[in-house]
Design goal:
Strand content: 15-25%
CATH topology of the largest domain: D-amino Acid Aminotransferase, Chain A, domain 1
CATH superfamily of the largest domain: ATP-grasp fold, B domain
Largest sheet: 5 strands, antiparallel
Number of domains: 2
Number of strands: 11
Number of helices: 8
CATH architecture of the largest domain: 2-Layer Sandwich
Radius of gyration: 20 Å
Structural class: alpha+beta
Order of helices and strands: EHEHHEHEEHEEEEHEEHH
CATH class of the largest domain: Alpha Beta
C-alpha cells in the first residue's frame, strides 16, 4: 500500500535489524545497512504518511526514556521509586545508604540477552572501574510480591496480576498469574500519563505495595502483550485488533 493511502499506522519495532546475508561480515557494513534501511523507512513515512500513528515515532522515542517517564508519572499523581541514574561509586553508595534495599537495571539496555533487574549488593565492594564504564539506574526496592502488567489499548485496559517473590518476574512465568480488574482511579492516572506522553497505547508495569498502593515502574510504548493471552484468558489478539479497527474508523 502507498503510505499516502493509509489512514492509520501501528509503529511497531521499526528499529529491528535487517535480515542480512552472511556474506556481509563487516560490522561496519552491517551497521550501514541497518541504519540506512531505518532511515529510508522513517523518511518515506515522515514525508508521505499523513494519517494517525499508533503511536507516533516522536512520542514512542520520547516515551522510551525511562527517566522522563518517571517524572511524568509523578506529575500525574503516581508514587514512583526514589531513583538515581549515575556512574559515580560515591553517589551510589550514598543513595543505597539513604534508601536501604536498592535495585539496579540498565538505563536503556541493548539488543541481545535480556538484562534483568538485580539487587545492589554492597556497592562499596564494587571496583571504581565498574562504575566508570557507563551509568545505570538505581532505585529503592518496593516491598511486596504483587506485580501488575497493564495492557492499554486506547481507552481500554486489561490488567494481569503476577504473584511472585522474584525481583524481576520475566524469567519465570510459572507463577500465579490472573486477570486484575483495574480500579477506576488507577485507570484515570494511567490515562493521564499516556496522554502526557502522547501515546495511543502502552504496556505499563506497576507494583503493589503490601498496603495495595500502586507504584509506577515503567511503560513500554510498544511492549509485548500476547504472551499473557493464554495466562489470563484475555483475548488480547482480538481486543488489540478491535482497537486498531476502531482507531481507523
Amino acid at each position: 500500500m502507498d503510505p499516502e493511502e493509509a489512514s492509520r499506522l501501528w509503529w511497531r519495532r521499526a528499529r529491528a535489524d535487517q535480515e542480512i546475508s552472511d556474506k556481509v561480515s563487516s560490522a561496519h557494513q552491517r551497521s550501514l545497512i541497518n541504519n540506512d534501511c531505518r532511515g529510508a523507512l522513517a523518511g518515506v513515512l515522515a514525508t508521505a504518511f499523513h494519517g494517525d500513528w499508533i503511536s507516533s515515532p516522536e512520542a514512542t522515542d520520547r516515551s522510551s526514556d525511562k527517566v522522563y517517564q518517571l517524572a511524568v508519572a509523578r506529575e500525574a499523581g503516581f508514587r514512583v521509586p526514589q531513583t538515581l541514574v549515575s556512574q559515580s561509586r560515591e553517589d551510589v553508595i550514598a543513595f543505597t545508604r539513604e534508601v536501604g534495599r536498592a535495585i539496579v537495571k540498565p538505563v536503556v539496555g541493548a539488543r541481545g540477552p535480556s538484562l534483568y533487574t538485580s539487587w545492589v549488593d554492597g556497592p562499596e565492594s564494587i571496583p571504581e572501574g565498574s562504575f566508570e564504564v557507563c551509568p545505570a539506574t538505581y532505585q529503592e526496592y518496593i516491598e511486596g510480591n504483587r506485580h501488575v502488567r497493564l495492557n492499554c489499548f486506547g481507552d481500554h485496559m486489561y490488567g494481569a496480576l503476577i504473584a511472585t517473590e522474584a525481583l524481576d518476574w520475566r524469567p519465570d512465568l510459572n507463577v500465579p498469574i490472573s486477570p486484575w480488574p483495574v480500579p477506576e482511579y488507577v485507570s484515570r492516572q494511567v490515562e493521564e500519563v499516556l496522554r502526557r506522553l502522547g501515546l495511543r497505547m502502552g504496556v505499563v508495569d506497576l507494583k503493589l505495595t503490601p498496603e495495595g498502593e500502586p507504584v509506577w515502574l515503567e511503560v513500554n510504548p510498544q511492549g509485548q502483550f500476547l504472551f499473557l493471552e493464554p495466562l489470563t484468558g484475555h483475548p488480547l489478539t482480538e481486543l488489540f485488533a478491535d482497537f486498531l479497527l476502531s482507531a481507523a474508523a
